[in-house]
TrEMBL record:
This is ABC transporter ATP-binding protein. CDD domains: ABC_DR_subfamily_A (cd03230). Pfam families: ABC_tran. Residues 10-235 form the ABC transporter domain. GO terms for molecular function: ATP binding. InterPro entries: AAA+_ATPase, ABC_transporter-like_ATP-bd, P-loop_NTPase. Gene3D superfamilies: P-loop containing nucleotide triphosphate hydrolases. Keywords: ATP-binding, Nucleotide-binding.
Amino acid sequence: MTATTTGWGVELQGVTQRYGDVVALDDVTLTIRPGTITGLLGRNGSGKSTLAGLVAAFRRPTAGRVLVDGEDPWENERVVPGVCFVRESGDVLDDYSLKDNLAYVSGARPTFSHELAGELMDLFELEPQRKPSKLSRGKKSAFGIVLGLASRAPLTILDEVHLGLDAPSRYAFYDTLLADYAEHPRTLVLSSHLIDEIERLLEDVVVLDRGRVLVTQDAESLRAEGVSVTGPATAVQEFVAGREVLATQRLGGTVQTTVRGALVEGDVRRAREAGIELGPVPLQDLFVHLTDPNRTGASSSRAPREADR
Ligand SMILES: Nc1ncnc2c1ncn2[C@@H]1O[C@H](COP(=O)(O)OP(=O)(O)OP(=O)(O)O)[C@@H](O)[C@H]1O
């Protein structure tokens, strides 16, 4: 295997995945840059796990092409050992101890770090002699994380693995992930519908919505795209005219509108003169607005919904 230090990239070209009548992914084209931490975000059922499963070569797409480090991963002896896909459900040998599971995985992963595995086992207080079937949900998730991070695979996909962890364990996971990523650059994909906690980790963001790509962008520019505009109703209405309005709330004569689209030169001065306050929008809020099923059109401006009035 030619594991690079900067990780493997992923490309999907016109990928469709059907399960009978269900179209889980619909003509998806996107790139995951090598050597980045990418957030694979989307509401329940949006197709995140399906996409991850295709990249990990668990199945072949109904149509389109999946490329991992430039090659089709399906039954690919070079690529498959370099892709580590950890699901919350956990793909472990339930009748074997954690220690035996670690031995099994390390044998299949040339990049596996026993040192990091040991550190993480201690951090999450996992006893090597225990069997996965005897672990609590949180400890099971933690063990998945041990396998995922210690594998140091050039492409690691962690699918909702942190959801079962309590808050201290989640923060320990985020810190360890960042520290290890800094020392051992690779491609990490974190799938989640809970964004507030992981957003500080993300360099790139892919948002899926009902099987389609809604956003694929670097996190910094996506953050800069969301602007909260607050002030007197008429002034705000004039200021946001021609912009993509994601949501509007009214409180008496004051209106708070969330718009998508980076500020342009002169906006800050114009806002100040009109008595308008401009502020950032958390990625989580932007995600909620973008994936709102009542939202029409991804790029056009729209009038506030009735419910907003
Ligand atoms: N094996 C399957 N058979 C039939 N339908 C499936 C199968 N796996 C997924 N689906 C359907 O495909 C769609 C996408 O599911 P997927 O699990 O990929 O979404 P997700 O974004 O990972 O969801 P969640 O956040 O709830 O885990 C859903 O409508 C789901 O019901």
